[in-house]
């Protein structure tokens, strides 16, 4: 019987939960909490004996900041308070601060009601956050979820300390973490299910491809290059992370810009030095950022921002994009440098997947699109209209889809089933055959996991031919495309006679496959009228076998071993 397994994405700023329903269509659904929030703030606040969670907790930051806990996820990487970098501690300086609660244990001290304070470790706080997520999922589905797939940064999975802390926090909530899955991997996995994805290449064609997944979160940006081969096997070629680059940088740029405008208007200073004013600006910046991602103008109104003075202004998208331009450039440069370090050219990337809440920024989408040739690479994002899922929800959706693959196995069997990754040999070159135009046509792409098998049908090949296989490599070439001569026309009175006929020719970059080592060659004769099919097999050890069969009779015409 199917065992419900919840997909959970745990972010610094927000968390999301998703489930694959037990209906005929196996519908995937991202679950909202009791307040209707599907993107749930990773925040807890305490006042007068009450615990507030999610958006309700964020609202407490203005008047109850010292009892409101935010930005606590990354502290799970540390068992000792003394080992936490000072820059990381600054994330909590305007809310409930992280302290040593005793024995060098990192945690928080807050008042649950007037005069009554408690100390909780980061693990315990995370457990309380997970409890609230579990409550939302259980209430919505009337199901007691005990098993979860948790989407977290790749570095968390590889850290014994972080994995242990996450499992302890999950246990507090009544969860058993069946598997950790990296955020970029879960983001990509969410697109491989045709039931929830729109009609883009990753979901539909099943071809081998290189895919970049760029996850732009609140504090962290992560870019991974995946080699997707053999109908869905994903190989992580490289992952680069910037832990100080994300949507928070957008907020800071906006806050600084708005504070300067307010101070200039009222001839005052120090607005950002006041915690209450800072939180008011922060909330206004977040709303403005989200608004300008959907429309071109935003109205901003903040009551009693500082010294009893209100602030009312407006901002258009162009001004916003100029304000965040430096951050956008850093994000697009991270994508470029990751591809380069993977040993690839942008022309070798088939798809780019943009995930994380910050990827819902039109300027960022445009900057990343500019890196690639639109005829070669598809940009998959909600902004571009090529994906229907919200980028905040893709990681939990991918985790839920992974959970749907797992059944109620015995523990020992399940542990084997959910290994995070498996090490297998991979091809270190392209392998292709010569086509009728005497050009290399790739059969196996570089980084294909072994063993591998491909069948190629040659319907038009009815004449005898020489089947020739080569190792191959990619070369990026350039050609000039001359600007066509423009036909002269009569000028209007207000037009100048300036001509751009001397424009420089456009440089066109393109990809070619060059022949390397000859791997095999054999004649193929007596082909039937319907053509032939060629089966290529590469063993785990790298040995190559080829069999050519008649499409109709299935008779073997040629065999290479």
UniProtKB/TrEMBL annotation:
Region described as Disordered: 479-502
Regions of compositional bias (Basic and acidic residues) in chain numbering: 479-490
Any one GO molecular-function label of the UniProt entry: unfolded protein binding
Database matches in Gene3D superfamilies: 3.30.30.30, 3.30.420.40, Actin, Chain A, domain 4
UniProt-listed SUPFAM superfamilies: Actin-like ATPase domain (SSF53067)
Bias (Acidic residues): 491-502
Pfam families from the UniProt entry: HSP70
Keyword Iron: no
GO biological process terms, semicolon-separated: 'de novo' cotranslational protein folding; cytoplasmic translation; regulation of translational fidelity; rRNA processing; translational frameshifting
GO CC aspect terms: cytosol; nucleus; protein folding chaperone complex
UniProtKB keywords: ATP-binding, Nucleotide-binding
Family statement: Belongs to the heat shock protein 70 family.
Name of the protein: Related to Ribosome-associated complex subunit SSZ1
Native source species: Hanseniaspora guilliermondii
């Amino acid at each position: 019987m199917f065992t419900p397994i919840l997909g959970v994405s745990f972010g610094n700023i927000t968390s999301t939960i998703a489930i694959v329903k037990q209906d005929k269509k196996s519908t995937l659904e991202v679950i909202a909490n009791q307040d209707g929030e599907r993107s749930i703030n990773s925040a807890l606040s305490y006042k007068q004996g009450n615990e507030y969670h999610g958006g309700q907790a964020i609202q407490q930051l203005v008047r109850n900041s010292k009892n409101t806990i935010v930005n606590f996820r990354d502290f799970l990487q540390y068992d000792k308070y003394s080992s936490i970098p000072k820059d990381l501690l600054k994330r909590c300086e305007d809310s409930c601060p992280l302290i040593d609660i005793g024995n060098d244990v990192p945690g928080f001290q807050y008042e649950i009601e007037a005069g009554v304070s408690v100390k909780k470790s980061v693990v315990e706080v995370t457990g309380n956050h997970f409890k609230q997520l579990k409550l939302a999922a259980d209430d919505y589905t009337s199901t007691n979820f005990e098993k979860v797939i948790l989407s977290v940064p790749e570095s968390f999975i590889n850290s014994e300390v972080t994995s242990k802390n996450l499992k302890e926090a999950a246990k507090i909530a009544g969860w058993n973490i069946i598997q950790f899955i990296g955020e970029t991997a879960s983001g990509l996995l969410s697109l491989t299910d045709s039931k929830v994805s729109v009609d883009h290449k990753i979901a539909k064609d099943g071809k081998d491809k290189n895919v970049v997944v760029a996850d732009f979160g609140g504090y962290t940006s992560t870019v991974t290059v995946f080699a997707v081969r053999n109908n869905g096997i994903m190989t992580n070629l490289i992952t680069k992370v910037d832990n100080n680059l994300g949507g928070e940088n957008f907020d800071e740029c906006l806050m600084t810009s708005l504070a300067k405008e307010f101070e200039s208007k009222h001839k005052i200073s120090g607005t950002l030095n006041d915690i209450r004013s800072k939180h008011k600006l922060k909330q206004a910046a977040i709303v403005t950022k989200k608004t300008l991602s959907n429309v071109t103008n935003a109205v901003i109104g903040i009551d009693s921002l500082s010294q009893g003075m209100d602030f009312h202004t407006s901002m258009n998208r162009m001004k916003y994009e100029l304000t965040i331009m430096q951050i956008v450039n850093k994000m697009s440069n991270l994508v470029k440098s990751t591809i380069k370090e993977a040993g690839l050219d942008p022309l070798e990337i088939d798809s780019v997947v943009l995930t994380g809440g910050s990827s819902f920024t039109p300027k960022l989408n445009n900057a990343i699109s500019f890196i690639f040739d639109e005829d070669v690479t598809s940009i998959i994002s909600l902004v571009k209209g090529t994906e229907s899922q919200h980028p905040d929800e893709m990681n939990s959706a991918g985790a839920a889809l992974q959970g749907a693959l797992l059944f109620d196995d015995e523990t020992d069997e399940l542990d084997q089933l959910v290994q995070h990754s498996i090490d297998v040999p991979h091809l270190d070159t392209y392998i292709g055959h010569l086509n009728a135009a005497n050009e290399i046509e790739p059969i196996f792409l570089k980084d294909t996991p072994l063993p591998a098998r491909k069948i190629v049908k040659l319907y038009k090949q009815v004449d005898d031919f020489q089947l020739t296989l080569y190792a191959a490599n990619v070369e990026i070439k350039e050609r000039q495309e001359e600007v066509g001569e423009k036909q002269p026309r009569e000028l209007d009175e207000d037009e100048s006679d300036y001509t751009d006929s001397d424009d420089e020719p456009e440089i066109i970059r393109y990809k070619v496959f060059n022949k390397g080592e000859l791997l095999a060659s054999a004649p193929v004769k007596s082909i039937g009228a319907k053509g032939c099919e060629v089966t290529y097999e590469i063993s785990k050890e790298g040995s190559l076998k080829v069999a050519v069969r008649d499409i109709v009779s299935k008779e073997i015409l040629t065999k290479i071993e």
